[in-house]
# Entry
Amino acid sequence: MKMIEDPEGLESQPVIYRKVLLRIVFWALGLAACFGAAGVIFAGDERVWRIVGTCVATAAGAFLLLPASRELDRETTWLPGVMSIALVVTEYLATLGMIWKFFGNAQEPAAFTMLFLVATTVPAIVLARIMKRPDGALSARVGIFASVVVFALLMVGTWGGWFQVVRAEHWHFVGLWLGIFAGLAVVCLVGSGTDRRHWRWLGVAAAGAAFVMSAYATIRDIQETTALFVCIVSVAAVVAHANAMAWCPLKPAQRWLLWGTIGAGIATGGFVDWARITTPWQEELLGRLAGAAAIIAGCGTLALLILAKINQRIVPVAATLADLREITLTCPRCQAKQTITLGSGECEACGLVIQVRVQEPELEEQKM
# Structure
């Protein structure tokens, strides 16, 4: 966002908006305190407590809008920023409706609607952040589409069950199964099109098959879990875990931990499948082996995540000046951290013009 210098010292629009939001937070908290004290003095009048709830909800909504508004300052995070603001505003209005009982007898389904909206929108916001990356474009789109479908299924179950038109538990469970197996498929799809891990499609197919089987069992009221279903789910989980771990940035000397962790994950799935197929024979022994392998896989996963975080801070040095294209810095005026192209540029948040250039250090001979 571009900023025009004002000789009178006027601030940029984003800064003004955030200051207004902060004022709303403090004023709402102050009003909540005043009306809360009045409610106690006047023996807890219901209307006074509703006003207190309104003030608290206003303060919480304005506070949540502060980080969401920062996302609008950058083009790469504009979409998740808009989604975050829409979610906060929708939840705020619904909360006011719950406080003042605008929904009448539909208070319960309205509350479930608010809960399901958060549960499906937050993952979609996270996926929207990686949608422009080549290694996350397909997985993000699949995940966002699945979030929309899951929310639709949950809404059919919530409001259709309230109107006694459908069996709410069927639609809720189908939506839950879709969310679980779509999540596994999304993890399997991370990196598709940028690498040669074609075995990921085995996990995607397994996740799809597991959802179809679980949805059919839910609709037909089948309670028994078959060994085939357990095996298919384990394949989807093992592939998703392996694909996620393979994307951890590691040094060559650290690769053994990756293969050990993936191997422990495969062993866990194998022991679980073996125990389910041969039940009740050797079920206790295989269960212990599966638990031991799961502990090893869990510890290895944590170790890989820690190493990945450490390795991300190690920035490789470019061989020549021609390889340098951009620099990461913090704006001296608004303190926004960003990446600016060498040569010239401006702050994405406040519009301050920043000129950056680099040069090779002088050799000792040249100094002499």
